[in-house]
Every structure is written in C-alpha cells, then in structure tokens.
Give the backbone structure.
Amino acid sequence: MERNADAVISTSKLCKSYTNGEVPQHVIKNMDIQIYYKDFTVFMGASGSGKSTLLHILSGMDRASMGEVYFKDTNFSKYSEKQLAQFRKKNCGFVFQQVCLIGSMSLMDNVLVSGLLVEKNKKQVAERGRKLFAEVGLTEKEWGKYPSQISGGQMGRAGIVRALINNPEIVFADEPTGALDSTSGKAVLDLLTGFNRKGQTTIMVTHDLKSALRGNRILYLRDGRINGECSLGAYQGENEPGFEERKEKLLHFLEEMGW
Ligand SMILES: Nc1ncnc2c1ncn2[C@@H]1O[C@H](COP(=O)(O)OP(=O)(O)OP(=O)(O)O)[C@@H](O)[C@H]1O
C-alpha cells in the first residue's frame, strides 16, 4: 500500500464483522482512512454506525476481520496478542467515559501502575506523573487520595494523566465527557484541547456537539463507512472570534449527514 507520510495511522480495505448467531454483521466496511499527526480527529455518527469499533481497531484493542492497519510504516494488523499489548502500552493513551481507577490505590499509584508497564525507572515515571498532575490542576494533596475520595471531575483529570503517562503517540478518547457534569466535561475537553495544541495527536468518538467542536477534522460514519468529512481548523476557544462560524459550519455539515 502507498502510505501517506503525514499519516500516523492508515488503514487499507479495513473490515470488521461480528457473528451474532448465524448472521454476520458487517460493522466496518472496506474502509481506507488516514489519521494525521497532531490532528484532533473526531468520529461522529449515529448509534451503531461503528465509531467505537473503529477506535478499538485503530488503537490495537481489537482486530480487523480483513484489511490492514498501519501505525507509521508498521502493519500491526497481523501482530500477536503480545505484540499488540506492547504496541498499545507504548503508543496509545486511552481516555474512557468511565475512568475505572483501582480503588485500593492513590491516584498517583494508579498512574504509576500504567507508567511502569513501559518505563522501569520509577523515579522518572513519578516525576512525569507529578508534572502531569500539575498540568491538569491536581495538587499533591489530591493525587495522594483514593478514587473514592475525589469528585467525578478530579477523576476525569486523573484519567487524562493516566492516558498521557507513557507519552503516547496518540490519545484515543471514547465519549470522554459522557459521565461528567458540564463543568467537569468542559475541563476535560480543555485539557485534551490543550495537549493537542502542544502536538498531541488525538482521536475522539463523541455524540456531543460541544466535544466535536474541539476537533479540527470531523469524520462522519454511517453504516460502517465514512460518509463525509468536515475540516474546522484549530479550536481557538468559544469566546474567540470565529467560534460562531465554526459552530455553524459543523452544524451545517451534521445536518447534511442527517445527524
Ligand atoms: N463485541 C461485539 N459483538 C457483537 N457485536 C458488536 C460488538 N461490538 C459492537 N457490536 C455491534 O457493532 C455495531 C457497531 O457498534 P459500535 O459500538 O462500534 O457503534 P457506535 O457507533 O460506537 O455506537 P454508539 O454510538 O451507540 O456507542 C453495533 O450494531 C453493535 O451492536
């Protein structure tokens, strides 16, 4: 396959089917897509259109049924489970709707567990963890607490630290604000936007317009195919000039897509 040098991930004739009983369900159909370095790519689409399935395949959490998935020049679609796990640990950070921290460990220890999967030097991982906690606005007093002692918003922030601890090439976020109130959701989006501005390639699945507005490239899925694409440019903030036009453009695109 001819690879686009600007693409950090690319797929060729990607297919994913599930067999529920006798009948196979084709969830991703012959998809060729590129995800570009430093982009904030957003997948939107109706429920069941294949967004999460696609995210899982691009991040090596799930396997394609057919076709190829490349990370830079490496085709990882044929990796063994062990190789895939290694690939994920090293290159992918995950932000989920439910953060799912280990209840018997402090926030910092939760982050260390992820960090030490890749980097053996505990001092270095802890140092990076402290820096990231500071960047997401959690103090030492807060990151010393157990998950049951913190708010949902703080949990969301800790989830971002955990996603970034291994300095991943790509952050994958699946409905990251889905379990949060609007203030905490905005804080998580601000963090994702901030890290993306500093060069963090980000891919997010969302149903939410406010979240989607953070992306610079919106891909709309329908029935396992990319039905359309909208380019928005970099997000500047909702009080900045151009925000209303950005919103109008996205709404118009989504209307065309039948959202
Ligand atoms: N592990 C699985 N086994 C069988 N079918 C599955 C599995 N995972 C997903 N599906 C089916 O694949 C289709 C696409 O699911 P997927 O979760 O990717 O959609 P989605 O666009 O992310 O939906 P939503 O917005 O509701 O989360 C759905 O019909 C779903 O039921």
